[in-house]
C-alpha cells in the first residue's frame, strides 16, 4: 500500500505514527490516498516552519492540497507573497537596528543644511545678470554646481513625503540649457523590504528673487535619461561563460540590475565543489505557488547540506496565468524573481553552466579522477541521511509517478525539522517592482486600495454564495463609502477582466486600475526593453502572473486597504465552512 509506505517513511522508529492513523481514518472517508498523505505531511511540515507567508492562512493551505483530482496547488490568483512581503517592516520598532547602509546616507533637511553651510562661501555666486532677469540664459547653468543639487533635494523632500532619499549623484546636463538630470536611490517608507530603487528625473531649474536656484518643473519617473549610470559600466566583464546579451553602446539601460548568470570560472576545481542537483520533477508547469514551495525546499536542503544548489532558470508557466490558456515553457526565472538578490543570499549555479563544467571535467580527467556522484532516486531518502555524503554531486532524481515526483516532498516529515525554506532569498523581480513603484509614484504614494476577487470564484455559488453580489458595482459603492473617503485615489486590484465594471465608483473616487498603466510594460517601456534582453531580443509577454504580482504589490502600498474576504463579503476565502 502506497499510503503506509509513505507514512512510515516519516516515522523514525517502529512505533505507529499519529499521521498514519489519521491517514487511515481519512482514506476510509473515500478521499484520495495521495492527496491526503500529501496533506498530512505538509501540515506536519508546516508546524515546524519558521515564519512563512502561507502559514498565516493554514486553512487556506490545507485547501490547496485537497483537490482530489489533482494533488497539486490550486491556482490562487489572490495574494502572492514572497520574501520581501514577510520580512519585518523597516518602520518596525522591534528591529534592533537598520542595516548600516540605509540609515547613514539618508538625505534630510538637516543634511542639506550642513552641505549648504560648507559651500556657501566657497563657490562663485550665480551670475547677477541671471539673478535680475530671474531666468537662466544659455551657458550660465552649471549642473554640477552643488547648489543645483540642493535645490533638487529640497524639492524632492517637499514633493514626496513618503519617500526616503539616499545617495544622490552629481546632476548632469539635461536636454536644454536650463535643465539638469539627477539620479538618486530611494525607498518608500511603506516598503516592506530594505530594497532601494533608482530614479533619475529631469528638472527645469529657475532662479528665485533672492538669487538661489529653484526647481521650476520636475519630470516624471525615469525622465532624466542623461543621469543614468555611465553606460561604460554596463558592458559585460571579461571572462568565460554565459552573460546577458551585450548592449549596444548607446543603450541607456539601468545597470542597477545585475542578473548575469554566475560562472564557476576556469580556475575552480570542479571536483572539489559540493553540489546538490535536483532534476526536473512533477512540479514543472504547475502553479507558481507550487513552484515556490518546491524550489525553496530544494534550496533549503542545499543550505542544510552546505552545498551549492544547481538551478534551472528556465521555467514553465502554468496555463492559468497565460492569456493563451496553455502551459508555456521557456519562461525565464528572472522575469518573475530577483535573481541578483538570490545570488547574494544563496550559493547557486545555473544548470547549463554546471553541466558544461561537469562534462568538461570528466572529459579531461582519468577514470578514477572522475566526479563522484551520488544518485538519489526517492524523496524518502532524507537530507539527514545525505549529510555525511562526500560526493561532489548529490543528484536527486524525480522519476516516480505523480505525486511522488514533487520536489517539496523532500521537505516532508522528519526533514521539516531540519530544513527551513529560505523565504528571505526569494524576492519579486525588481523589474516588476519598478512598475509597482511607478504606479504608486504616479498616485503620489497617496492612495487607498481595494482588492476585488471575482472571476471563477464569483461563479462558484456552491463555494462562495455571496461573493458575486457582494462585489457587484452597487454593493461596492455602498461598502466602500464607510471605509474610504470620497475623492481619494482608489486603486482596485482585481481579476475582473471587464475594464468598465468599476465605472460606478468613478462618481465617488479617482479610480485606478492596472490597465491604466499599460504603457509601463508596452513596447516603448523600459520593462519591455529589459526583458527582451533576457529573451535574446524577443519581446516578452506581460503574463497573468506578472499582472497579479504587480496588482498585489500596489495594493500593499495603499494607505487604507480593503480586502474582499473579511471586508467586502462574509464568504470564506477558500469556500464555504473554511473560516
Ligand atoms: C487539475 O486541475 C485542473 C484545474 O483545476 C484541471 O483542468 C485538470 O484537468 C486537473 N487534472 C487532472 C489530472 O484532473
Ligand atoms: C562663511 O562666511 C560667513 C561670513 O560671510 C562666515 O561667518 C562663515 O563662518 C563662513 N563659513 C565657512 C564655512 O567658512
Ligand atoms: C553642460 O552645459 C554647459 C552649459 O550649458 C556646458 O558648458 C557644458 O560643457 C555641458 N557639459 C557637458 C558634459 O556636456
Ligand atoms: C561647474 O561647477 C563645478 C563645481 O562647482 C566645477 O568644478 C566646474 O568647473 C564647473 N564647470 C563649469 C563649466 O563652470
Ligand atoms: C562600443 O564601444 C567600443 C569602445 O568603447 C567600440 O569598440 C565598439 O565598436 C562600440 N560598439 C558599438 C556597437 O558602437
Ligand atoms: C554582477 O554580479 C556578478 C556576481 O554574480 C559579478 O561577478 C559581476 O562583476 C557583476 N557585474 C557588474 C557589472 O556589477
Ligand atoms: C554546514 O556548515 C556549518 C557551519 O559552517 C556547520 O555547522 C554544519 O554542521 C555544516 N553542515 C553540514 C551538513 O555539513
Ligand atoms: C508597439 O505597439 C503598437 C501597437 O501595439 C504598434 O502599433 C507599434 O508599431 C509597436 N512599436 C514597436 C516599436 O514595435
Ligand atoms: C527601448 O529601446 C529602444 C531601442 O533600443 C529605445 O529607442 C527606447 O528609448 C528604449 N526605451 C526605454 C524606455 O528605455
Ligand atoms: C478589514 O477587515 C479587517 C479584519 O476584520 C479589519 O481589521 C480592517 O480594519 C478592515 N478594513 C477596513 C478598511 O475596514
From TrEMBL:
The keyword Lyase does not apply. Residues 226-257 are annotated as: Disordered. The chain crosses the membrane at residues 25-48. InterPro entries: DUF7074 (IPR055502), DUF7075 (IPR055503). Residues 140-223 form the DUF7074 domain. Residues 269-564 form the DUF7075 domain. The keyword Repeat does not apply. Keywords: Membrane, Transmembrane, Transmembrane helix. GO terms for cellular component: Golgi apparatus. It comes from the Eukaryota. This is O-fucosyltransferase family protein.
